[in-house]
Amino acid sequence: MTVFRLPSLDERGKRRLAVALDDQPPTVLSGQAIATGNRGDAWARNVEEGIEKLTARVTVAEPGEHVLRVFMVDPAMAVDQIVVDTGGLPTSRRAPPESYHRVFNPDPANMSMPAVPGLPWA
Hints:
This protein is mainly β.
């Protein structure tokens, strides 16, 4: 699972949130918030790309519907997207388009997402 968060600088050194599937214990994810002044450091790269990816493994014990819980650990965390990869997702800096869901997205053909040339799902 990958949480796409908006990068922000925190003088305390990190921004954290936690995720948990169903009744599993939460897993704390820490964002990179220390700027070294080097153009190639992780924080600078996240700001240039406009996103920071925080990843965690979640264990799915059985098929069916599940509840993904997201907890605020530190204030001012802005989550943009959450991607659950069940296998086969191509590597990309961007998240894939929203997937089909019979309640929340019953007609995926009417999604207003522009095609981006060069992306695997474009």
